[in-house]
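Can't paste images in this forum, so I'm doing it all in text. The chain is below; anyone willing to post the predicted structure tokens underneath?
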Amino acid sequence: MNKNSSVKEILAQLHKLADREKAKFKETKFGIPAGDSLGIYQADLNLIVKAIGKNSMRAIELYDSGIYEARILCAKSFTPKDITFKLAEKWISDFENWEVCDTFCMKVFACSHLAIDIIRAYYNGDREFEKRAAFATMAAYCSADKTAGNDVFMDLLPYIATASTDGRNFVKKAVSWALRSIGKRNKDLLIQA
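Text version of the structure:
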């Protein structure tokens, strides 16, 4: 694998690494549905990403393959500055578990110029993983944007208050993660959080 590897070559490599027992393990231990998963751990995917590098067009093709691990590779190999709101909407509408959701939020959305727009668009969403996407993006944005002022994060606290009563497990965890992340930025935000 290298920076010039085609989608076909990358998918072939994923199929070589496939292990259904790992897929079953992830489903049992971490609640990640094994449906279209080949059963490849993050450590192996990280090695592939290191070899192939960033290429947004290729990343989109990987996503469109429908293979679970190819979607994770998409998030890890997509250049955040290339994201459009329409593409983010498409991906968010497909999220069906925390692993894919959080990978996109941490690797793409939080590092992009659309982070705050995504948070605002989805913090009150009906679907569990679209709402989680808002708060996972918020949590990751706290460390992704080192230059943002306290006012940016103060403006996000009402979203946390609004979602704090959502009893769905994956939303609740992301709301808590976002609140803690804001509080970790500095002493003033810790007091407000």
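The first helix runs from residue 7 to 17. The CA atoms of residues 59 and 74 lie 4 Å apart.
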